[in-house]
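A further point concerns the way the authors explain their paired sequence and structure data. Since the whole study asks how a given chain folds, the encoding of that fold should be made plain. A single example would do more here than another paragraph of explanation. An entry of this sort, consisting of the sequence and the corresponding backbone structure tokens, reads as follows:

_____
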Amino acid sequence: MGHANISVFVPHIGCPHQCSFCNQCSISGQQTAPTPQTVRATCEEAIRLRAGKLRDTELAFFGGSFTAIERGYMISLLEAAQPFLGEGGFAGIRISTRPDAVDGEILRLLQQYGVTAIELGVQSMNDRVLRANSRGHTAQDVVQAVDRIRQAGFELGLQMMTGLYQSTVEDDWNTAQQIAALSPKTVRIYPTVTIRGTELENLYRRGLYRPMELEQAVEECSGLLRFFTEQGIQVIRLGLHAQESLMQDYVAGPYHPAFRELCEGRLYLKQALCQAERFAQGTPLWLWVAPNAVSKMAGQRRCNLEVLRRRNPVKIRTKADVKPLQVVVTAADIRRIGGSSMKVERFFRDVVEQNEQALYAYFTPDAQILWHCTNECFTAQEFIRANCEYPGSWEGEIERLEQLDGRYVLVGRVFARDRSCSHHVVSFIQMREEKICRIDEYWSEDGPAPQWRQQKQIGRPIAE
């Protein structure tokens, strides 16, 4: 498991201005200001949940402008976190604030209380855009704050927004280039979303502001993601975090709960289309990606594969040495397609179609099929009966098929034709003389994350 932030939201407290786009209660899902007791309780629970991983965990004060809140209150929150830092505790504290709320005195205070990283809400490096959105600071304020933060030895993160009122795509790219020139370690990119109760909503309803469409935002932000990645700057968030309060107050704009996935999928598609041009139309192709990038290559609802298959038959394959956000397109290895892997693919199809007559030919006489999730063991004949008498009409697709230690590992999705339910299966298939002699299968029903995890804002959607 990688780095994690344990977030404490301080909604809008301390901000001397009301930015055109801002409703922190909706964005953060937090209606009330945290207390020192809240901080302690959050830390205690996080230490229990992340035991053994705390050196990769930071406590983060987000929302509002942390260094602009009342000084005594800010110190009380920092003091509440102190017992949970150091040996056996969190790696440090991360805060977000405004560029004009960072001076030498505040930086020394933050150092004293174990703050290790500071993120600045830059939003734009165009003074005209900053004024139009009532930010109350200038681009020069950003440059000066960055210099002070770097001299004080803090890790630097910068945040930008796309599609702001009176901003153009060119303005957004100029902001990105100026941010990259400041060499932050991390960047967050937020497409502007119009939220109820903001000045932006007023401008939108009067016809003075036109939000970006989702497709426009994906196109622009996928380019920004590639740009920052190529600059060696880590994009740690792309799009607003999914919140029930945000959906309740949403008015307009490019919000999607898996916005980053859309952008990453767009990058994979563009690369694959470009490389596929090297092969004749109709040539079977393999799309090689990192093991954790299969869903990104496939795209939301497998839209990328649909586009690519208009020209060539394609399958996704994985390699550990393929870099993130990279795809390598090769001609398919026909020898492998004609061998056991193709037989496994046909077997999966016949299972989904409940083709009883065809299924008998796949198994050795002594074959065993084990369903571990329900503690059941079948002969081939029993398995075929259980499969073919299962009620309903089904469709399915193979998401991954790999060879491992002489066995095939298949990851598939099986779903009702009326889309009323969906399941994932992981099958370990052992062959003997080109027939299946054993299958170990693990089935799960697809569905939303448990409510307790949603409430803790742990993780983000892989796909819609």
